[in-house]
Amino acid sequence: MSRRRQIYEGKAKILFEGPEPGTVVQYFKDDASTAGATIEDADRTGTIIGKGVLNNRISEYLMTQIGDMGVPTHFIRRLNMREQLCREVDIIPLVVVVRNYAAGSFANRLGIVEGTRLPRTIVEFHYKSNELKDPLVTEEHIACFGWSSPSEIDEIISMSLRTNDYLSGLFMGIGIRLVDFKLEFGRFFMNDEIRTLLADEISPDNCRLWDVETNDKMDKDRFRRNMGGEAEAYQEVARRLGITPESGPRDLPGPTLIQ
Ligand code: UDP
Question: What pTM does this model have?
Fold first, then answer.
């Protein structure tokens, strides 16, 4: 574990001050929690052995691919098995959910059979608040309370849809259906400019990933729904992506100056 000053501890990650100004270190824990998702039973916490290592690796891979494809992200580089260096951003207080198929609370709320393909992709916004359990909000609410500007929202929607197109294809290529996923965005201040960056993580903790052939769940729903086999499912996602983390923390170079 890092000896750096801790900024924040969330359900699945700890944020530390980075080695250079304007950077943070994300530490991936094995802890899992059902909080944040609208499920029938009470909030539950637990541990999925090895989850942090796998999510660090999976998120590194996906963020790098998405960045190369032209969507700017906060990811700089992976530091070791559980830590990655990221740009420090001001998190926009919105949870952005992209849905290709009906699932979870969405399917329940609208009375649609889970797994139904949606006529078009939906981008929805939730106000980021643990106490309020991330309530669904409209662009009217966002504008009214100034959580984000209309132009920033346009950018967020466009970045979310491009990420969805890219990830849907990437996962389809390895026999996985991208049912839905959650994104977070941040504001990065560079001289006089503000840039919107994709932040947080992209991993089976915040995507619904179903095997194309069997519809087996390969994501955190295995934990949320007490199905078991979550560590094996995360491992299988990493294996299919070709990034199983067998190399240790010493395989990487030390800190370098950030441009
Ligand atoms: N999601 C997440 N964190 C949240 C809420 C949702 O990562 O706080 C992800 C979740 O894993 C799923 C998608 O966003 O891939 C849509 O989740 P939904 O709102 O349907 O959650 P549910 O209530 O169904 O668990």
Answer: 0.92
75 strand-pairing partners: 86
Around ligand 1, the residues with Cβ closer than 6 Å are 36-39, 95, 97, 103-106, 134, 180-182, 206-208, 220
H or E segment to which residue 218 belongs: none
How is the beta sheet containing 83-87 ordered, strand by strand?
Answer: 6-9, 13-17, 23-28, 83-87, 75-78
Separation of 38 CA from ligand 1 center, angstroms? 8
Token reading at 136: 């669904």
How far does residue 69's CA lie from ligand 1's centre (Å)?
25
The sign of the CA dihedral 54, 60, 63, 65 is negative
Q: Residue-wise pLDDT tens for the chain (259 aa)? A: 557 999 999 999 999 999 999 999 999 999 999 876 655 556 889 999 999 999 999 999 999 999 999 999 999 999 999 999 999 999 999 999 999 999 999 999 999 999 999 999 999 999 999 999 999 999 999 999 999 999 999 999 999 999 999 999 999 999 999 999 999 999 999 889 999 999 999 999 999 999 999 999 999 999 999 999 999 999 999 999 999 966 444 443 434 444 4
Asked if residue 11 lies in contact with residue 33, where contact means CB atoms within 8 angstroms, the answer is yes
Look at residue 99 and give its three-state secondary structure.
strand
Q: Which amino acid is at 67?
A: G
